[in-house]
Design a protein that fits this description.
single chain, alpha+beta, Beta-Lactamase, 5-stranded mixed beta sheet, 39% helix, disordered C terminus, binds guanosine-5'-triphosphate, Diguanylate_Cyclase
Amino acid sequence: MDNEIFESILKITEKQDSDEFSLSIVATLAEIIPDSVVALFEYCQFTTPPYQCITSLSIEQQDSDKLRYLWDIKLPASSHQYIRDHYQALTHLTEYQTNDDRYHVFIPIDIEGKVVFGLEISSLRSFREKLEVLVAITKVCQNFYAILSYSERDSLTGLYNRRTYDNKLNSLLKNQQSSQLHHYHPELEQETRLLLPNSTTWLAIFDIDFFKKINDKFGHAYGDEVLLTLSQFMQQSFRNNDLLFRYGGEEFVLILEPVPFEQAVQVLNNFKTAVAQYKFPMVGHITISCGFAKISKKDHPKTVFDCADKALYYAKEHGRNSVYNYELLLEQGQIQHGIEEGDIELF
Ligand SMILES: Nc1nc2c(ncn2[C@@H]2O[C@H](COP(=O)(O)OP(=O)(O)OP(=O)(O)O)[C@@H](O)[C@H]2O)c(=O)[nH]1
């Protein structure tokens, strides 16, 4: 194997987390193709357009021979235009040239036969002679992505699993909203969204009401169908930057990107209402309860979860099919900080 490919693959596959892995692929390709812009797109069938650029990089050679890594730089308009017009046809490696004299290559990465990511590399100089290297690297990456995805996602719903939740929340708390991925980059010509004043990141827990009865009445397979449909509903209802997890059995966690309190209440209530109105095949109507809490920098992962869980418990005790916020319940004196009736837990 060519030494360059071997070294690159070794470097990329040292990463054990798919976010870091993605950044590493982009960096490696940008190093291999000097003066290029490398962008990584992620596909999501539930968004419009059904893909988003999650990161991009260009490496600049400085006078001192030092390299400057320009992350999340704006993509050439020609790349955006082409992808917007042709994304449905970009299911195999595509080379194209545009009027601005740029040479582009788009390489789709599929997992289990479905295109999940796409890499777009563009430069004012042709890099045809490097195509073989690019293809070799992306083929290995494709296999490695599949392994990482298997370990990070829940097999029934495809949402992130509990283990990934721990990792993502830990890194979010460590580095509140500054991670390279799943973060809105205004430079990337995506949906322009200004951060409203008083915006905070929120953690919400959803739990299906009386799910045991659904299993008991219709059988486990129909119970699974409800979990699957609900998770698809979640993917359609929340923004691409929001993170969704199947935390356990019939319990789901949502990390809501920074929005003001009123907006969080509205978004969560809309979802709760939409679920209650939906008629599941065979099972009919179901309801969910939700508790949510603010994620602040100083929080410990367990503390945030426990707070949202207390609000969820309150919802379960007060009629279900409802959404409650931990901080508001606390302010209203409906619950106490740390100590609950019949609860000797102290934190
Ligand atoms: N079909 C299916 N059922 C599951 C799965 N994981 C957990 N469950 C079931 O989910 C049910 C959860 O029951 P409980 O914790 O009593 O909660 P509940 O019946 O929803 O009641 P409340 O939460 O109090 O409204 C149990 O019967 C579990 O067996 C799964 O992957 N598939």
